Amino acid sequence: MIAADRPIKRPAWARLLVVDQTGRVTQMPRANWLDVLRPGDLVVANDAATLPASIAGIHVRTGQPIEARLAAWRAPVSATPAVFDVIVFGAGDYRTRTEDRLPPPALAAGDRLAFGTLAATVAELTDHPRFVRVRFDAQGAAFWQKLARQGRPIQYAHIAEPLALWDAWTPIAAAPVAFEPPSAGFIIAWRDVAAMHAHGIHFATLTHAAGLSSTGDAELDRRLPLPEWYRIPASTATAIETARAEDARVIAIGTTVVRAVEDAASRLGGIRAMERQATQRIGASTPLRIVDAIVTGTHEPGSSHHELLRAFVGDRVLADATRALERDGFRTHEFGDSMLVFADARSRLRRASLPASAACAA
Amino acid sequence: MDDHASAVPVSLAKTRVLVTGGTSGLGLALVDELRARGADVAFVARTSGCVEKTRRRHPGTLGITGDIADKDAIHPIALQVLGWRGGLDVLINNASSLGPVPLAPLADTDCEDFAQALATNVLGPFRLTKAVLGALAASARDGRGAVVVNVSSDAAINAYANWGAYGASKAALRHMTRIWEEELGHLGVRFLSLDPGDMDTPLHALAVPDADPRDLLAPAVAAQAIVDAILAALPTRPAVTNPGSATYAEALR
Fold it and tell me: What ipTM was assigned to the predicted interfaces of this complex?
């Protein structure tokens, strides 16, 4: 596939690869994605806004430059003081491929980090030298003020020009809790929200703190996704339970929506208003209790996003889809083309065969 | 200052409001009134000294230094207000520019002054509304309701000599408000264009230096009317019955 190297969220030429319930693979202009849906369907999107989660600064003890990438909330969202799991790089910036970035100076618990006026302490080390827990000094309003000044969106070398914060926000962005854009949501225009309303397609949102897509380190990449905070509002819980009671389809916009609702359903046996950390890994053997289809980017085999698609369709169909993406020059990464994948019969059977206690209460 | 809290009607408790131009005139009166009614108030203004002064007057508010006429300032403002309380229910686009000061006929108005009026009175509210629209729509879906107030003027309707830059920009803002309402009514986000009348404010003193203050409305009175209109456009403020939301709200405190 070809890297989408410009930050255009809804290019007119964007394409959508559709994999239907029978495994048939077709293509269409992405702007027409609602044509695949029907009245009664429930579309669930992630309305997290993206943090300026890349922060350049200094490791005070050595005077060395560092870049910290916020990677996971370690205190309740917006609690004070702000505590995060953080990936730390040495000198350099996004223009260097993540894999080629210099390591940070050796970090010790208690080390001070200075990001302009935003100061922090290394609170805890892990078994990996680039991965530490960091506590920021600033609390509440002051934390947001300093982060707004010092942070910028996390970015990778495939896009040359520096991203502005608005490049990383989907049109529906609300609470800023995501570390990278929940980029499947770039597909949604407000005119689509109006069209759904007009055509009896229901629309709901949850908020999921989408994490890093890559750390540049194979050992750390294997730990992705890290635990990801999410919140399901009452109105969305009701919409999902109603859809299930009516046997309507639930279409997830993005892997983060799948992670949130499937984590909730697997733990509680149903969807309620809640907030917690999603820790489940979704793969070939994971039953999908809630979601019937997913809109997502075009992912390379081997990535955790690609692995998640194996819960929807068998490997043969996934290979067909990957071949079509390669053959027809689909573009990949966060500003690339999209796929809409419906769960196959085997996946639906797996749901039907769940023990009653684990299935969602109607 | 939080001694308001116990005496406040529950009406705007836990309602998250952002006021632009919130350190003087009508904006400051709106901050006063909203705090008196128990709202969570964030405000924006250009001068950090004024922001600090208003923040000291109202501890517990979020004061943001920024210029809404500056494109690059919009998302940092949105980030701060949305991060602070996890969302937004009410946006009041109050900050205004007169254009040329002293006021001038259009033929004598510098292009730069006209552009400044458009940037502050039209483009700024447009960009800020767009940046927080996701949050407003989320509030509406969740039953909290959402309102955008764009502060208008009779100069948006009547053609007053010497008020060209201001009047044309306020006319555009008023029309934009109606189109937002037309397009987004289905979301449950309400858009109101409200004309507070001629008030005794620094902006009015700049425009009409020799006006008799006795002929002008106190900003506090205008602010009450605006807050009443917001309350009327919101659903009845619900008691917190959703445990998920309650936890979130607690986490944000």
Answer: 0.94
